Amino acid sequence: MKTLIRLALRNIFRNRRRTLLTFFSMIAGVAAIIVFGGFVEYTFWGLRESTIKTQLGHIQLYAKGYSDKGVAQPGQYLLNNSADIVQKLQAKKGVQTVTRRLSASGLISTGEKTISCKIIGVEPEKESELSSFETIIDGMQLDSSNAADGGVVGAELIKALGAKVGDTVTILTTTGDGMLNAVEFKITGVGQTGSQDYDSVFVKLPLSKVQDLMGTKSVEKVVILLSNTDDLGLFIPILKSEISTHKWNVEIKTWDELAFFYHKVVQVYRGMFKVVNIIIGIVILLSVTNTMSMSIFERVREIGTLRALGTTQSGILKLFLMEGLLMGIIGASLGVVVGVGIANAINMLGGIYIPPPPGMSRGYLAFILTPAPLLAFSFGFMVIVTLISSLYPAYRASRFKIIDALGHV
Amino acid sequence: MISFKHVFKDYLLGKSIVPALRGISFDIESGEFVSICGPSGSGKSTILNMMGALDIPTQGDVIISGANLVQLSDSEQASLRNRKIGFIFQSFNLIPVLNVFENVEYPLILQGVSPVDRKTRVLELIDQVGLSAFITHRPDELSGGQRQRVAIARALVTRPELILADEPTANLDSKTGTDILGLMKEMNRRFQTTFVFSTHDPQVVQYANRIIRIQDGVLVSEGDNT
User: From CA A90, how far away is CA A99, in angstroms rounded?
Assistant: First the structure.
């Protein structure tokens, strides 16, 4: 094996210019996979965290049956014991905050203009924590100082209303008994979540105000925000055990069961990533196959000599596959170093500005993440492609007739 | 050691069949120093190729060290070449990326000889061909004569029963050619290895103890060199 590796390494660097050119294409390929893959990873991370920290939290608890019948009969599927749930879960390890929400469809009116909206009752003192990715583009976030008569309105909605911070508007909705009810509040802030659809409808009011409006003391859901999204898998069993211990009659929904837009974006980007990988793979495949074929053509007589000295057909096959494998390992390693270098350079220069994607209300600065699985994938992908590229040339070399090979000029 | 029995060999050139050997029979005993001579295209290289298990006859039997060539698989032929036969080529055919030591060592690696034994045997052979000062040199840093000496050391290092040399002096000047033939003869005497070499040079033929003359694929004469 040592001799095989030594011989293969020396053969690789025999024609340095050609090998360097092949390495350049491999390095470019790996670096492209890392930079594009890192951009995709950042986009997923950004969209995930923004979805969690503007609307959904990590986990939502509803009254049992809410997901099947709650849309038709929201009043029948509210949580009555939410304070107890909040108190018990807030103390759990890994939990950043637990808050309650009550939402309803309604109308918002300035007197001159009336538009349908989604009223969301939130706990003001916890709102800045749960909605940390929401940008307040004007005024201030809902908190205990302005909770008495204030509310936050979505950026697109306030535009459509023609209102501004400080204006008093009226909210109209139906109570659980089907009666109409209205309340006035002062717009204290304008929020932007990034999702154009959501920003066109949401109105955030203190939970107590929305409960009064709807004539209930209950809440629609309890929202749990964890300190770290990666801990979700660990927290779910703990939560289930709590539910079982306290016999809470609730159902669990995790953020990814509710983040439909996120999943659509992930699907599209993953598809694009696959196409990019296939294109890079084909370019590398052709490049390495060409290099290996030229190398074999130049070494026909040498292959004949090795065979004459007693090297078997499989010995020749192994030699050329080893050359392919080592080329893959060297090229991919250099590619990873260059790819990580480019990613770091982009990040240090402040990222790349990406204009608002479809369905989003704002653009963002994209950074390039370089997580270990992405680096391992790009490395492994390149090594495998290189090995596959050397299969046919190696097979051909092993099948040369010895006397023809020895007589090759 | 070697037995050719009514050996025919045809080559396909385009759509026509070209006969290279036409019913050749002869035997070579262990320890002989034999020359196969004849003009270009007479069939010398074809005979050497079969003796070296590099090619098989179209018809007839070629028996090397008791093994009938046509009955051996590819890996058995490779093993026969590695263990019992050494090759000296007209163009030296050294591996360009390996130095002198590594070129001579290569057949022993294929045999699975231990590194310690390899080192002893390789250094001994390199010393015997007079290249001890060049062990780390690559082939492109050596003269033609030096390269052929490396090839001789490589051929002898496995202590084969048979060494085949196809026109071993054709690419060398006459003085170096004479030195190489002298060295081959010396090795033949010292190790009792059978040497068979092909040539069309009458000067070179004189070194052989026995001469097999071939013309147009037919054995014209064979006998001791007197």
Answer: 9
